[in-house]
Design goal:
The complex is a heterodimer of chains A (470) and B (365). With 470 residues, chain A is an all-alpha fold. Chain A contains 20 helices and no strands. Classes of the chains: A mainly alpha (470), B alpha/beta (365).
């Protein structure tokens, strides 16, 4: 049940109506049941996995909370191990076997299992780990209600592709009766329409262009298709994932929950560290809080700081999928973060910070960061190392005049998006729509958005959200 | 419950209302339809509506002949008119390439809402659809052809006639979101407004007249010697390999038969849609004829005349339709009457139209 299908919106409307008719406790039961139904639409077998993972994490939480000293630590290790083993088995088992076979030169066919990746597993296992660690750190009391915990893990707007919700943000919102304010309704609808436009009109437009390049057609190292293909994927993944997140946040709000922001116009970042503060924020902050800081962060000397960056980003890359290409993408960003740190140190040492940070230089830094990020998407999207190298080789040649023959929307959409971001700087339009605009203005804006979705939306495309595969 | 959701419900209701009003004003009112690009599928339907309206004579007994491109190419209304002389009968060719009875049903509802515009309706029908391996019910272009004809009241009935889930969803969207259904046409209009204006204002009237005077194509397939055991030509003639490449799929196609399920589904489709059309006209006592159009250039030699299938016989028994004999036009199933493996040429068009008019005329009250 995709967010861009009629089925989903009928399901969602029924959920909202029923939730509004129920008392808070019954509402929680409803949301858990609806979330399991939603999950069953993907693959009914994995409902049991979701249930078992939920039950185990809830029990681990109680065990950690009720233990002290070394027992408490042991309980935490068991909780983390349980989640990592679950994730490792379903997501990485074949990958490890294949890698081992390649290293030790044996035939992996006898060992490889036919494992179907349960959707959302990367997200709900990370949420399970966050819950256990937060209890261990005494940042959060263990949730005594299994129902509350089941809702935290399974709540359908974030179940399949995040954002990765932190328990301390979620639990205070559980059990509140649903009573939507004018602001809730406007905010929720705004995010849903924005997300649908990003996905149906923009991401679905770029997807076939990126696919045409990366699906292995022989482009003979020509630079124009490579540039167009990489740019198309760069835009596709942003519109796809941020569109998904917008819809998820909008739906959550209309169900009485607030999700944190997951994207803050990341392609307008002026450096790579800034990019990671704006891209998939729920993952990058998770990696920071539950991996980078426990590894020592930047408190254990320079060399260890750079090593930690590489470890965190490499594992962050692998989190996306069982492929060395994802690891390469993560390591590439780790290297960029390290280089950026070195650069800032150099700039500070040379005392040229004022010059480097001058406003008129910002477009240059933004363009440079965008280009580096776009380059990083090559191993992320390419099916293997060979295709990655081939694409990078093709990109190395500057595009010729054939580039102007590419579909005008390739360049027009980013330019229009840029113009929109400039006009809507500090989100003043979007905030105005929610907070101050008249009812008529809101309806007119909503109608315009719907007309744009109808006009540019490719509803027949049926292209799944990219992050569903992670 | 509603009080808790009031701000959301108010906003959604207003949005739906605005969209319905906009859709109503632009699409459902018929304001946009005449501006649809002529050569698109929806444009073909609009062009056909205009053609039928223009060439139906109020004083005459109009006989509307419906079909796909086989009738578009193979039937000449002026020739048929000539064949029946001063009988007061007037034939109108309402064929649209690529369509079948589902689209004709909605076309007739639009062009003839009171079912009293025509003295008779004649529809080409596949008497024996055994060679169709695809499902008529799931023909995906139907929703594109029918887009200018569908109404909100069709929201449940029309999509339900598709067997495939994706086609049903697409059909539902076509009705519910006409802007989405027409989006490529609208985007093209926005990109080239002057070109569209010229096309509609200047070219369409000329196109309608040209369609009325269309004589059919001059070229003909060569008469090839056929091996009776293989049902294939023994010598491909002067054009050799080129002709062989063009015709071989036709000869192979004669041996293909649909699965039982597909055949049953296609027969059910004919029953459903011909039945619906016929039921509407029976109330007014207007006859609905079905006929088997000349099927192909060598069908007359290699295939037995088509016999009406169970659906047609059932509708006939119920007094809903009149079936013209399956062998009525077999004599035109010769290569000299065809310019390709499906469509008749000028000669075929003339001969068929004359014979068709002679058979139908005495049956029209």
């Amino acid at each position: 049940m995709l967010f861009d299908t009629f089925e989903y919106w009928i399901f969602f409307a029924a959920s909202v109506l029923l939730l509004a008719a129920l008392r808070p406790t019954a509402g929680k039961w409803l949301l858990v049941a609806a979330s399991y139904v939603f999950y069953a639409f993907w693959d009914v077998r994995f409902v049991f996995l979701l249930g078992a993972s939920t039950l185990a994490n809830w029990l681990f939480g109680l065990w950690i909370a009720d233990s002290a000293g070394s027992k408490r630590k042991r309980a935490l290790i068991c909780a983390i191990a349980f989640n990592l083993v679950t994730l490792g088995f379903f997501k990485y088992f074949n990958f490890f076997v294949d890698t081992l076979a390649a290293l030790l030169h044996f035939d992996p066919n006898g060992m490889v299992l036919r494992i179907v990746l349960p959707v959302g597993i990367s997200f709900f296992t990370f949420e399970g780990i966050a819950y256990a660690v937060d209890i261990y750190r005494r940042d959060l009391p263990a949730r005594r209600s299994a129902l509350d915990f089941a809702l935290f893990i399974s709540f359908f707007p974030h179940l399949i592709a995040g954002p990765i919700i932190r328990p301390m943000n979620f639990f205070p919102q559980v059990g509140q009766p649903l009573r939507l304010t004018d602001e809730d309704a406007r905010w929720g609808l705004r995010e849903i329409l924005k997300g649908l436009f990003k996905k149906i009109a923009l991401s679905n437009f770029y997807a076939p262009i990126a696919d045409a390049y990366f699906h292995g057609q022989n482009w003979n190292d020509m630079s124009v298709p490579a540039w167009v293909g990489v740019l198309a994927f760069t835009l596709q993944i942003y519109f796809d994932f941020s569109g998904y997140t917008d819809i998820a946040r909008g739906c959550a709000r209309l169900l009485g929950f607030r999700f944190p922001s997951n994207f803050e116009r990341p392609y307008l970042s002026a450096n790579i560290a800034d990019f990671w503060r704006r891209w998939h924020i729920s993952l990058s902050s998770w990696l920071r809080d539950y991996l980078y800081i426990p590894l020592g962060g930047n408190r254990r000397g320079e060399a260890r700081t750079y090593l930690n960056m590489l470890i965190v980003m490499g594992l962050g890359g692998l989190w996306h999928g069982a492929s060395w290409n994802f690891a390469l993408w993560g390591l590439y960003h780790g290297v960029l973060l390290g280089l950026h740190r070195l650069w800032r140190r150099g700039v500070a040492a040379a005392g040229i910070g004022d010059i480097v940070d001058r406003p008129w230089l910002q477009p240059f830094w933004i363009a440079l960061t965008f280009a580096l990020v776009a380059l990083g998407w090559v191993p992320f999207r390419a099916p293997d190392f060979a295709s990655t190298l081939k694409t990078l080789h093709a990109l190395a040649a500057l595009p010729d005049m054939q580039l102007v023959a590419a579909h005008p929307a390739i360049a027009l959409v980013p330019l229009l998006a840029l113009a929109f971001c400039w006009l809507d700087r500090d989100r003043r339009w979007q905030d105005w729509l929610v907070e101050r605009a008249s009812f008529r203005a809101v309806v007119a804006s909503g109608a315009c958005a719907l007309i744009l979705i109808e006009l540019f939306g490719q509803l027949d495309a049926k292209i799944p959200f990219i992050y569903f595969q992670f | 419950m509603f009080a808790r959701l009031l701000p959301l419900l108010k906003l959604l209701a207003a949005l739906v209302l605005v969209l319905l009003v906009l859709d109503g004003l632009v699409f459902r009112s018929g304001l946009y339809a005449p501006w649809i690009e002529m050569n698109s599928t929806a444009g073909a339907t609009v062009g056909d509506l205009q053609f039928i309206r223009k060439y139906t004579h109020p004083a005459a007994k109009n006989i509307l002949v419906l079909g796909n491109s086989q009738i578009g190419e193979g039937f000449s209304a002026p020739t048929a008119d000539q064949a029946v002389g001063a009988s007061g009968l007037h034939f109108v060719n309402g064929a649209i390439a690529g369509t079948s009875p589902r689209v004709w049903n909605y076309l007739l509802r639009e062009i003839d809402p009171a079912s009293d515009r025509f003295a008779a309706i004649a529809m080409m029908v596949d008497y024996d659809p055994a060679h169709w391996t695809g499902l008529f019910a799931d023909y995906s272009l139907d929703s594109s052809y029918a887009a200018p004809l569908l109404r909100l009241s069709d929201l449940f009935d029309y999509p339900a006639t598709f067997l495939d889930r994706n086609e049903r969803e697409r059909a539902r969207r076509t009705i519910l979101l006409p802007l989405q259904a027409m989006r490529l046409d609208i985007l093209d209009f926005i990109a080239h407004p002057l070109r569209r204006y010229r096309e509609i204002v200047h070219s369409r009237p000329a196109w309608l007249e040209a369609a009325a005077r269309y004589p059919g194509r001059d070229t003909a397939l060569p008469d090839l010697p056929i091996d009776d055991t293989l049902d294939m030509p023994t010598d491909w003639g002067a054009q050799g390999k080129e002709l062989q490449a063009k015709l071989e799929p036709y000869f192979h196609g004669l041996k293909i038969s649909a699965s039982k399920d597909t055949l049953a589904a296609n027969i059910a489709y004919e029953h459903e849609w011909i039945g619906r059309i016929a039921a509407r006209y029976r109330a007014k006592g207007i006859p609905v004829f079905v006929f088997s159009v000349p099927r192909g250039p060598w069908h007359g030699t290699l295939v037995a005349p088509a016999q009406p299938n169970a659906a047609l016989l059932d509708l006939s028994r119920a007094g809903l339709i009149r079936i013209l004999p399956g062998d009525a036009f077999v004599s035109f199933e010769k290569p000299g009457f065809f310019f390709d493996t499906l469509h008749m040429n000028h000669l075929g068009r003339e001969a068929f139209s004359q014979r068709f008019a002679e058979i139908v005329a005495p049956l029209v009250p």
